[in-house]
Hints:
This protein is of the alpha+beta class. The chain is built from three helices and three strands; from the N terminus they run αββααβ.
Amino acid sequence: MMGAVADTVRSKLTEAFSPSRLELVDDSDRHHGHAGHSGSGESHFNLRIEAEAFAGKARVMRQRMVMKVLADELAGPVHALSIIATAPGET
C-alpha cells in the first residue's frame, strides 16, 4: 500500500500527463542507511510512465518534464526518483 507522498505523486503525474501507464514503486527500504533515507519510507521511488506528451521528446527532456511537475516533492520528502518515461508504442 502506498502512502500520502506516493498518492500525491500519482495525482500530479496523472493530472499533468494523462498517462496510459503509470507505475510507481516505493524503493525506500532498499536505501536504509543511505543519504536521504529518513526511515519513514517514501523517500526513494522508481517511476515508469507512458504518455503521449513524451512523443518526440529526448529522454532528458522527458525527465525534466516529470521533475518540473514533482518539484515540491523532490525538494522535500522525495530524495531520489528513477524515471523511465516513454511515449505510447515505445519500449
